[in-house]
Specification:
Blueprint: H1 2-24, E1 42-44, H2 48-58, H3 68-84, H4 88-102, H5 109-124, H6 128-144, H7 148-164, H8 168-185, H9 188-200, H10 210-213, E2 230-235, E3 250-255
Length: about 260
């Protein structure tokens, strides 16, 4: 009986010790989700909330970084920020600095991004010839680098410029080239957007073909060509284009600097 009592007492002491250890452990709460917005590769100049978030994030960025690639990313973002605020001369200066670095890279995808962003600035400044030159270089590089989505976005940007110049035939061909890419990629929201662009495009009497009749836009799409903006690109390789983030307007490329 004495031995049984001592065993029970020893068991109680062990259990009490374990309970004490558990009681002393701090309670760990699940961390709150990050308040930082998820970045996307593309920024619409007509999306005021996205623009505000980007400009807030860009504050304090410095081009004095550890690698040339990182410096080019910073120059790119600083250029986009100045562009969005209407400081076109400063935007050109930053994008030109990014351009000088990115020309040395073997992979020329980033160089194509800079060409696109420069084209947008020149278009804003009213220099259509310079804008056209940079757009065509960007489109060619994206195509050569196998970046169909970015090529399609830049084609749409270029088509918008052509439309503002009254070059409706060439603009239509360029919109249709972008549409063909999105149809191949299978991104329906962008297909809808390009169909709306084509539907809203002025056309000479008698020029509408049966194929062009087929690209009518849904009634819910914004078909006012005067409301179109521009889109910049932000680097985030994990992002997908499952929904249309464009609103309306050209696209710029911006980089995720971490």
């Amino acid at each position: 009986m004495y031995l049984l009592l001592m065993k029970n007492l020893s068991l109680i002491i062990v259990l009490a010790s374990l309970l004490g250890l558990v009681a002393c452990q701090p309670t760990t709460l699940n961390p709150e989700p990050s308040a930082q917005p998820v970045s996307t590769p593309f920024l619409s100049g007509t999306d005021s909330r996205a623009v505000a978030a980007f400009l807030n994030r860009i504050q304090g960025f410095s081009a004095a970084r550890s690698s040339e690639a990182a410096q080019a990313d910073s120059y790119n973002n600083l250029g986009v920020a100045q562009d969005l605020q209407g400081n076109y001369g400063q935007a050109l200066a930053y994008h030109t600095q990014a351009l000088d670095i990115r020309r040395t890279f073997a992979d020329q995808t980033d160089l194509a991004k800079t060409y696109n962003n420069l084209a947008i600035v020149y278009a804003r400044m009213g220099d259509a010839d310079q804008a056209s030159g940079f757009y065509t270089q960007a489109i060619a590089l994206f195509h050569a680098q196998g970046k169909p989505q970015w090529e399609a976005h830049t084609l749409r940007n270029y088509a918008q410029l052509l439309e503002t110049q009254g070059l409706y035939v060439t603009a239509r061909q360029t919109y249709q080239a972008a549409l063909a890419i999105w149809q191949t990629v299978g991104t329906q929201p962008m297909v809808n957007q390009l169909q709306a662009d084509l539907s809203a495009l002025p056309m000479p009497l008698g020029a509408r073909s049966q194929n062009e009749e087929a690209v009518n836009s849904p009634a819910t799409m914004d078909s006012n060509p005067g409301s179109k903006g521009e889109i910049r690109f932000e680097e985030d390789h994990s992002a997908t284009m499952d929904s249309n983030p464009l609103g309306s307007g050209p696209i710029r490329f911006i980089e995720d600097e971490g």
